[in-house]
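Dear Dr. H.,

I hope your travels went smoothly. While you were away I took the liberty of generating a structure for the chain from your last submission, since the lab meeting agenda had it listed for discussion. I wanted you to have the full record in hand beforehand rather than looking at slides cold. The sequence, exactly as received, is reproduced here:
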Amino acid sequence: MALDLYQRLGLKRGASEAEIKKAYRSLAKQLHPDRNKDNPNAAKRFGEVTSAYDLLSDKDKRARYDRGEIDEEGNPKMPFGGGFGGYSAGAGGTQPGGPQGFENFNFGGTEGADLGDLFEGLFGGGAAGQQRGGRFGGFRQRARMPQKGADVAYRLKIPFEDAVALKPQRITLADGKTIDLKLPKGLEDGTRIRLAGKGEEGPDGRGDAIVTIEIAPHRLFTREGTNIRLDLPVTLKEAVLGAKVKVPTPEGPVMLSVPKGTSSGRVLRLKERGFVAKDGRRGDQLVTVEVHVPADDADLQRFVEAWNGDGNPRASFGV
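The corresponding predicted structure, in token form, is as follows:
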């Protein structure tokens, strides 16, 4: 019997989010294809534990899985919402709100639902159902369509700078092969990228690989929509007299003009230095100036003591 998602991670049902994350990290480190190039079973297990973590880390999908509504691949387990009550048949087919029971389904004719496969296990197959001559004897047999292989889930953490520049990322798949993944416009933390035919093998072909992107935080930049923000310290002299200063951006440093008489909190804009939107337009880098005042500068202290100041900047507060 195939292991359920919790068993794949070596856990029991009811495990906490922290326990799930810890178990996945430990197994992913052990089974990663880069560390098991001569062990195809490890590569397969890597795909299985990654797929399990991807579903169980999604609160909504985990709740549906725990209730038995979806299977290990995230697909619904039962047709018609998991039961047959509450539907009635009319000219347009089944409708919600009708009386309970099988009699409310239209099983005959070309308009009726073909439920032969569904009841095959209950009534011993189509032939047995015909011999019984009962109300289910008229089901038409339908060959099951070949199924594609299962999708394989991956999580890829990328540097902040690479996300801004949409730099292609190299990823190792469960079969040990590496590909260069092209990042799409409108990239967000949690964006999912589907790689057709890169999943598990099946009777009707391979499934897909689903790559979930995680954008790593940056020590200097923060994201705000398609814009990015940066707090920039400047000297008192640069703020008072104005200056050109070097400013970091995700794609390298540039020169920025600090206007004469700039106060702390003023926001300066570097156009088109932010993230790329889905429509191809690019956000800006917003630079907030922070004037740095030295704590022990005797010359500055003497100057300020002799200076009359510039009035009361808090006058508008009414204090």
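Two observations you may find useful: The longest strand covers residues 227-235. The mean pLDDT is 80.

With kind regards,
E. W.
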